[in-house]
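Subject: design request, 165 residues
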């Protein structure tokens, strides 16, 4: 189970590098988290430009490390420039980032009032969701994996508490 976040992180880093290689950095803002579920911990906080040259990463998980939320933030990829609120473009971006599984469901949702695209599926026998949205000049890509219904509730509550200062 511990290898899953590593594989996911490497693949998303590659995706961030390839999708934002041509974009310019205009005031990327690190997201803040308003709610962390009981028993969850901040596992990684890698600033913008240190995770990859054009992204940062924040990772929360439960104490056991078997479920968590990885939040990648960075430059808006060319595929979303001018389409930051386009539902089809956001869904397509989420599907593109769901490289670990074939999406079983896609759609849109709101994350703290912002429209986001998502792709859900199963990886290594466990449910996962990729969520993509844009806030101002910042692209957010989220990967959440969970074991139980309570884990999913906790992950989604943390995700919905994302805000920008």
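Subject: RE: design request

Done. Sequence follows.
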């Amino acid at each position: 189970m511990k290898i899953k976040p590593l594989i996911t992180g490497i693949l998303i880093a590659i995706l961030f590098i390839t999708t934002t290689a041509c974009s310019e950095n205009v005031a990327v803002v690190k997201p803040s988290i308003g709610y962390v579920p009981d028993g969850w911990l901040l596992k990684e906080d890698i600033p913008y430009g240190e995770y990859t040259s054009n992204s940062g990463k924040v990772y929360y998980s439960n104490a056991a490390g078997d479920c968590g939320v990885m939040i990648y933030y960075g430059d808006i990829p060319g595929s979303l420039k001018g389409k930051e609120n386009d539902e089809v473009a956001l869904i397509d971006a989420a599907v593109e980032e769901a490289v670990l599984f074939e999406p079983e469901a896609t759609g849109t949702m709101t994350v703290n009032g912002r429209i986001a695209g998502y792709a859900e599926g199963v990886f290594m026998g466990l449910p996962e969701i990729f969520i993509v949205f844009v806030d101002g000049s910042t692209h957010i890509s989220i990967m959440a994996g969970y074991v139980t219904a309570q884990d999913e509730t906790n992950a989604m509550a943390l995700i919905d508490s994302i805000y920008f200062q």
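The chain has a mean pLDDT of 88.
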